[in-house]
Structures are given as C-alpha cells and as structure tokens.
Write a structure and sequence with these properties.
Blueprint (H helix, E strand, L loop, with lengths): L1 H14 L10 H10 L4 H29 L2 H14 L1 H10 L3 H17 L7 H4 L9 H7 L9 E4 L3 E4 H13 L1 H5 L4 H18 L1 H10 L3 H21 L22
Antiparallel strand pairs: 1-2
Length: 260
C-alpha cells in the first residue's frame, strides 16, 4: 500500500492547479505571501470534500466506536498502533541525527513489546520514557528544506499539510515495514488502516467539534493550527526555538496517519 500512498500524494500535488490569483495591492500581497496558500481555491474544495466525507462516514463511525468500546480498550488500541509506527520514527530519528530520540524510541518499543503485551499497554510512558515521533517531513527540514516546507496543501482524507510534509507522509507510508510484511494480505492491511483511522478520529472528536464551532473560517483555522504545530516540531528537530513558538492550538494532524 505504500506505493499507492506515494502515487496518491504525488497526484494530489499535480492536481492542485487551481491557484489563487496573486494580488497587486501591497497589503493584500503581504497577506497572500504570509498565508503561503497559492492553491487556496483547490485546497478549499478538498477541505469541503473532507468535511462531507467525515460527517457522512468517519465521524459517525468514530462516535459509535466511542459509545460501544470502553475507554480502556480504546486506549489499548491506540497504544498498539503507536507501537506499529515506531520503526519509521526510529529510522527518521537516525536520519535526523537525533540519537537521543532514537534511543528513546528503541527503549520504549522494547519495553512495550516485552512488558506491554505486544504494545497494547504503554508501560514505557509510565516508566518515564519519552515518545518522540520523528517523521520524514522533519527529516527533510533537517536536511535543508527550511521554512514552512513550501505552499500549504489540503490532502484528501489526510487533512492539512505542506508540499514537504506531504512528501514526508508518502515516504513514511512507503517505508512502513508492516505494509511490506502484509503485502499479500490486502484485507488485513486495509483493515488495520480502517481501525487506526477510526481510533485517531475518535481521539479528535471533542477537539475538532469545538474548533469548528468556534471558528468563523474553519479552513483558515486548520491552516493556522497545522502550520504552528509543524513549526514547533521542525524547530525541535533543528534545535531552534522561536520566541513566539507556542501554538494557539494543541492538535497534530500527523497523528492521523496512513498505515501501510
């Protein structure tokens, strides 16, 4: 499935041809450059599609999942998928030269697999082992792709991103060892993806509902929120600290990932 994700993200970038017209008024031009969203018409269309699909399918399923499955089991399922993502976090930590992060990832994976019943219980966090989540978008930033990673993009189903981080998502999906292990088990592979997506969506139910209700422009709020949080994660990897780094919103859409 990783190859499909890579092709999917690449095609999205090619398809973002509906660019916003570059304004000539100096003040409007300043705002245009600050938002760094030249694909805004297409992005808003994708956002509308995501909202419609979410409200029709994923959100009702996530609500049902919350109503039927006890919190204890929901937490265990989230822990399990977090453990499955650790190999790619580990590889990215090494590529970034974040050897302390790599050690933490290796330690928590071994701890949770051994004492956490194959990752269902997060014993590592209880033991005080950090849980860094290094991704390939951060790796590209560490290698020199600075700033916000290119124009803002809204990916179908995946939500807010940038050109750099969209490529990072595709590479992380392509390199996921679970996908290669289940290459000939398509039903199991897609089943795991579905459960992971439902688990992640359930965890974001309250936050996204509150955010949508309080936003006059939900799309612009998501754009600002995702960009602030990515800046914080990129700065952490690069060892930089912006004075106004603290985000206005605590949410990270990178947690809602494709499972390969």
């Amino acid at each position: 499935m990783g190859k499909k994700i890579f092709i999917f993200v690449f095609c999205v970038f090619l398809g973002l041809s509906g660019c916003a017209t570059r304004p000539t008024d100096p003040e409007e031009l300043r705002i245009y450059e600050e938002t760094n969203d030249p694909f805004e018409p297409a992005n808003r269309g994708i956002h509308a599609f995501n909202q419609a699909a979410d409200k029709a399918i994923l959100k009702p399923i996530a609500k049902g999942y919350r109503a039927v499955v006890p919190a204890f089991f929901r937490t265990s399922i989230g822990n399990f998928f977090d453990t499955l993502r650790q190999p790619m976090h580990f590889v990215n930590a090494l590529l970034q030269g974040q050897f302390k992060d790599a050690g933490c990832i290796l330690g928590r994976t071994a701890t949770n697999l051994t004492f956490g019943f194959f990752g269902l219980f997060d014993v590592a966090t209880d033991a005080g082992i950090p849980n860094p989540k290094n991704d390939f978008g951060q790796t590209l930033a560490k290698w020199g792709w600075d700033g916000d990673g290119g124009p803002f993009v809204m990916l179908p189903f995946l939500g807010p991103s940038s050109v750099r981080d969209g490529i990072g998502t595709a590479v992380d999906g392509l390199g996921n060892p679970l996908g290669w292990a289940l290459w000939n088990e398509a039903e199991l592979n897609y089943g795991l993806l579905a459960v992971d997506s439902i688990s992640a969506r359930e965890g974001a139910l309250d936050l996204l509902d509150d955010l949508e209700k309080s936003s006059t422009d939900y799309y612009a709020t998501l754009r600002s929120m995702s960009r602030q949080n990515r800046r914080k994660k990129i700065n952490a990897v690069k060892g930089e600290q912006a004075e106004d780094e603290k985000p206005d919103y605590e949410a990270d859409f990178s947690d809602i990932e494709w499972e390969d």
